[in-house]
Amino acid sequence: MPELGNRVANAAPRRMREADQKKNTMRIIHWALVACAASWFIAGAWWMGHRNGCDCGTTRSHAQMKTMPAVTQLGPAAAAIASTAVEAPVATPHPALATPLTIRFSKNAGGPELTTEDQAWISVAAGWLSGDGASSLIIAGHTDADGDSMVNQRLSLVRAEQVRALLVEAGLPADRLRTIGVGASRPLADNLTSRGKALNRRVEVALASESDSTAQQ
């Protein structure tokens, strides 16, 4: 009988230990399943975000991605290149055209006298106008102060038209040549000497500036 009592007494603690071990095992299995489920959830969320264009923890729908500007879908270097506008170099006229062409007239009733330098300037201007569709020339006629001012005004315009005809004959486009007559209002020298008058009888040809085009309009 004492032996049976000892066995019964020893069996109770053993069962308690086995029950505790089962509880611990179930607890470990439970938390393992929780951790596994959390891992699957996180992995699934990452995959969905990556598929929809995840960026720093945010997701975008396919519709949003389609409406995004093209530059934002490029890498930083490509976006910088795409957003940088490269301006075409601005063409500058031939240096010879920086100085207006001055054509002299021997006397008020005479015609224009072209020199070799004048013809070279005209050749350069013809080449420039053929390559630049926006430029034009302004041809201004001048007289000395002899005679009536109204007559000189008309005469200065006639001189400008004479030079224009020469330029058209030399190959310059007629629609890019504009004539004006200013009479004796813009002298280069005094009109008291023959030399001064000869300097004032002239036609000046120059590239039309933006202010010339605005005034003409």
Report what the structure shows.
- This protein has 217 residues and is of the alpha+beta class.
- It has 2 domains: 2-82; 95-216, OmpA-like domain (60s Ribosomal Protein L30, Chain: A), CATH 3.30.1330.
- Helix content is 53%, strand content 11%.
- The chain contains 7 helices and 5 strands.
- The protein has a 5-stranded mixed β-sheet.
- β1 (101-105) and β2 form a beta hairpin.
- The longest helix has 50 residues, at 2-51.
- It starts with a helix and ends with a helix.
In short:
This protein is α+β, with helices and mostly antiparallel strands.
Task: Using brief descriptors, characterize the structure shown.
5-stranded mixed sheet; 60s Ribosomal Protein L30, Chain: A; 217 residues; 53% helix; disordered C terminus; alpha+beta
Main beta sheet strand tally, sense and closure: 5 strands, mixed
Straight-line N-to-C gap: 133 Å
Radius of gyration: 48 Å
Strand content: 5-15%
Please give the domain count: 2
SSE topology sketch:
Layout (H helix, E strand, L loop, with lengths): L1 H50 L10 H6 L8 H7 L18 E5 L6 E2 L2 H16 L5 E6 L6 H21 L7 E5 L12 H7 L1 E6 L2 H7 L1
Parallel strand pairs: 3-4
Antiparallel strand pairs: 1-2, 1-5, 3-5
